[in-house]
Design brief:
The complex is a heterodimer of chains A (484) and B (374). With 484 residues, chain A is of the alpha+beta class. In chain A, 37% of the residues lie in helices and 18% in strands. The chains are: A alpha+beta (484), B alpha+beta (374).
Chain lengths: 484, 374
């Protein structure tokens, strides 16, 4: 009955055929990139323009129905997981590039535009859009904004937040917020900072203005092999300390190297304990000078082998191993669970050793492949979900890794988001005061709590039940309340 | 490392007490920007007592410092390790605190290339309007756990929370810096800047004033040499000092502007109206225009930097006319001195009020700034 009324309202809000209600049509939307968690959506709305988005939000507000916004569905933390009794607002039909403004080096795009398409549109002008998450051939800019996505080049060129100048946001209460634009700042509070990375909890982005950069003239790619993973970790710090900001600085451990070699035959030394990939860019002379300095630093750091790619083909081969690491890990075991903690670079060596110890304790292998330059780890926990208890063990192992990251002064998620996956770990990273403040900030945009409920920020009750309540300075909020 | 003085406890207690009593507070750092915000009506709460660099890891490119630390002290410590703050905040009158710089969110001449203050912020410990001490963000570049509250604090002028300590990303100082200069019209300067934006050259600042375009190139020796060859401008000795003076508003253009604004302030003293209404009567006002990069702003009496994205304009035109000029170029304008806040749309204003209430429910933190009086 309720569903029929909502269907009626949404049909009026959308173009014919853009409301999906049949089970077969809903099935492809059951999951995002975190495929372990599935939920058949109640209804899927596919607006084609901002008026339709506003009409969908209005209908949901009036019916008191929750809204989950979804882009391409490549997210890795279940942030776009549907609700059994909520509307999945899917923005893939809003996929026009509205403008490439060469004078201001910006592009104005709809949220469903695929990340790589922006660079393709800008390329004829010698420009590109810098953030390049590994899913860039599929992921959409709206999703990138919701997750504050990174990529392999963010050490030098920043995250999504550094490369978006303006967004237009629709709130559940029917307001349109035009934040920023082609200018480099905007009047008032930096509401865009609050919106970027908010995982669809505050509003719906219906348009974005992104910054375009001139494509670098030259790049160099170095590959260094180490006998000892700790030494490789220390080499990362030494490069940064040397005053060099590489365009990319990536690391893989022995298991990841072997898997990648089996899968992609990139020519990595199979017997190495760790491989470091370092990309340097600039003009020809600069790139050469930086490559020479990094080679010297790597040699000092004890690399047993250092190779400089001599051609573009070889550069691509070096990268091919790294880029195939995830699918390659997929062949090592029936399932893998990808973690996303970030730690200060200086902790790399010791945390990697601790992850190895945890691997032994939980009895599950782990392959490490990660953005070493910014300390963003992606341990891939290998398991078999068909074996009783292995899924739970993998989750427990993952939770331990994230706790270790927080203890090292890092964070539970560097670029994949909290979604539904890391709600418990949020209780470890934040105290009750911060979590309450997050809820108050959310309420400033969405007082009725209809936007993506149950994601990103745990309830205090959940944290209390876990017993993981993080107490800062010995002071619990509301000391008058009992906590068990 | 943690030299200095930790007053976090007493600052938090002072806010909690003021909140309890419903007493407004005026958060006061180094007073270097008091001429921009005006003094608050509330009881002053000095942050200068909370000082010291808490953690500095040159190999992490990260520094954490308490709000009352002077920009001078912080820059000196970074320079000793061959590093710098990428956002290069202004030091008006040579002063300023780290907390004040982050709260104001102003960025130096390198803004389009090296990023804004908020771009460099990684984490912040704050006291919200009820006196709670809260920690957001952290010390790592990639961090998407929770809403990005630490960056929301940047440019909020202490109205959402007192910044106790802030962690920012730092960067290596460039190996070489050269300033190039050439006499040219504003139109020619704008067209050069548009070209610079599309070329992968190590440019880190531009400024056109008094008929001269200056371009700062900074990076590796090789990169700077190539940029000098590629650009049709001449090397200018001591150009570094020029851009520092622009940053701190110590360049003669700003000295003249300040003189007219002092006259305006005096006129305002006899006036019940807003400071900039009085200024219009007293003579030209200094406006800040935020424009798209590559904007062609050709009015006389202007200093244009950030490859066209920031223009300073001394004009006697009224507010509506100045706004119209900025809007025609896709930007916005606000008088820089005396608390003239840029206009916001009704929906943004309403969202700001709700966010203010979420952090400072009784409105006790710096109620005189960023409000809707103007």
């Amino acid at each position: 009955m309720r569903r029929a009324a909502v269907v009626e309202s949404l049909k009026a809000a959308l173009a014919p055929g853009n409301l999906l209600t049949a089970p077969a049509a809903l099935a492809p939307f059951e999951t995002d990139g975190l495929t372990a968690i599935r939920q058949r959506p109640w209804l899927v709305a596919l607006p084609e323009n901002v008026e339709q988005v506003r009409a969908v939000l209005k209908a949901c507000r009036e019916h008191g129905v929750a809204v989950v916004t979804r882009g391409a569905g490549t997210g890795l933390s279940g942030g776009a997981r549907p609700l059994a009794d909520g509307v999945l607002l899917t923005l893939t039909k809003m996929n026009r590039i509205l403008e490439v403004d060469v004078a201001s080096c910006t592009a104005r795009v709809e949220p469903g535009v695929v990340n790589l398409k922006i660079t393709e549109a800008a390329a004829p002008h010698g420009l590109y859009y810098a953030p390049d998450p590994s899913s860039q051939i599929a992921c959409s800019i709206g999703g990138n904004i919701a997750e504050n996505s990174g990529g392999v080049h963010c050490l030098k060129y920043g995250l999504t937040l550094h490369n978006v100048l303006g967004i237009t946001v629709q709130t559940i209460d029917g307001e349109e917020l035009v934040l920023g634009g082609k200018t480099l700042d905007a009047p008032g509070y930096d509401l865009m900072a609050a919106m970027i990375g908010s995982e669809g909890m505050l509003g719906v982005v219906t348009e974005a203005v992104v910054k375009l950069l001139p494509a670098p003239l030259a790049k160099r790619v170095l590959l260094a092999a180490f006998d000892d993973i700790r030494r490789a970790g220390d080499a990362v710090s030494a490069i940064i300390r040397g005053g060099i900001v590489p365009a990319g600085l990536e690391m893989m451990d022995a298991l990841a190297i072997q898997a990648a070699e089996d899968f992609a035959q990139a020519g990595y030394p199979r017997d190495a304990a760790a491989v470091l990939l370092c990309e340097l860019d600039g003009d020809e002379a600069e790139a050469d000078a930086d490559a020479a300095r990094v080679q010297a630093i790597l040699a000092d750091a004890g690399a047993k082998e250092i190779r400089l790619a001599r051609s573009e083909v070889e550069q691509e081969a070096f990268w091919r191993g790294r880029k195939s690491a995830f699918p390659a890990a997929g062949r090592l075991a029936p399932d893998y669970y990808c973690m996303d903690g970030t730690i200060p670079r200086r902790e790399l060596g010791v945390v990697l050793e601790d992850i190895a110890a945890l691997s032994r304790r939980h009895g599950l292998p782990v392959a490490n492949v990660f953005h070493a330059g910014d300390g963003n780890l992606h341990p891939l926990i290998l398991f078999d979900s068909s074996k009783p208890g292995e899924t739970e063990r993998a989750e427990a192992f993952g939770g331990d890794i994230l706790k270790r990251c927080v203890a090292a002064g890092g964070t539970v998620t560097g670029e994949h988001g909290v979604g539904v996956e890391k709600l418990n770990e949020m209780c470890v990273q934040f105290g009750a005061g911060e979590i309450e403040q997050f809820h108050r900030l959310k309420a400033a945009f969405d007082p009725a709590g209809l936007m993506n409920p149950g994601k990103a920020i745990p309830t205090l009750a959940r944290c209390s039940e876990l017993g993981g309540m993080h107490v800062r300075g010995g002071a619990l909020p509301h000391p008058e309340l009992e906590r068990f | 490392m943690a030299a200095g003085c930790d007053s976090a406890g007493s600052l938090a207690a002072a806010v909690a007490e003021a909140n309890h009593a419903g007493r407004e507070l005026y958060l006061r750092g180094g007073d270097s920007k008091a001429h921009l915000t005006g003094c608050g009506p509330g009881a002053p709460l000095a942050t200068r007592s909370h000082t010291g660099i808490v953690d500095y890891r040159p190999d992490e490119l990260v520094v954490t410092a308490r709000c009352g630390t002077s920009l001078q002290e912080l820059s000196t410590a970074l320079a000793a390790e061959g590093q710098m703050l990428p956002f290069d905040p202004p030091r008006f009158g040579g002063g300023g605190t780290f907390g004040g710089a982050v709260a104001a969110g102003f960025s130096g001449p390198g803004r389009p290339w090296l990023g804004a203050t908020r771009d460099a912020v990684l984490g912040a410990n704050i006291v919200n309007g009820t006196g709670q001490r809260l920690a957001f963000g952290g010390q790592v570049l990639k961090n998407v756990a929770g809403y990005d509250v630490s960056r929301l604090m940047v440019g909020a002028f202490g109205t959402l929370g007192l910044l106790l300590e802030v962690t920012v990303r730092v960067q290596p100082r460039p190996e070489a810096v050269t300033t190039l200069a050439s006499a040219c019209s504003a139109e020619a300067a704008a067209s050069t800047c548009q070209r610079l934006l599309r070329q992968p050259l190590p440019v880190t600042a531009t400024c056109h004033v008094d008929g001269v375009l200056r371009v700062r190139v900074a990076g590796s020796e090789a990169g700077v040499r190539r940029a000098c060859e590629a650009l049709p401008l001449d090397v200018e000795e001591e150009g570094d000092a020029f851009f520092d003076a622009v940053r701190d508003h110590a360049q003669p253009f700003f000295a003249e502007a300040a003189a007219t604004d002092v006259a305006a302030a005096e006129a305002a003293a006899d006036h019940a109206g807003t400071p900039h209404a009085a200024a219009a009567e007293a003579g030209p006002t200094l406006w800040r225009l935020s424009l798209p990069r590559g904007a062609v702003f050709t009015e006389t009496g202007a200093l244009v930097e950030w490859a066209g994205a920031q223009a300073w304009w001394r004009t006697a035109l009224d507010a509506e006319q100045v706004q119209a000029r900025a809007q025609a170029l896709g930007g916005f304008a606000a008088p820089f001195h005396g608390g003239g806040w840029p206009k916001r749309s009704a929906s943004v204003r309403a969202a700001m009020q709700r966010i203010k209430a979420a952090f400072d429910p009784n409105g006790i933190l710096n109620p005189h700034v960023m409000n809707d009086a103007h």
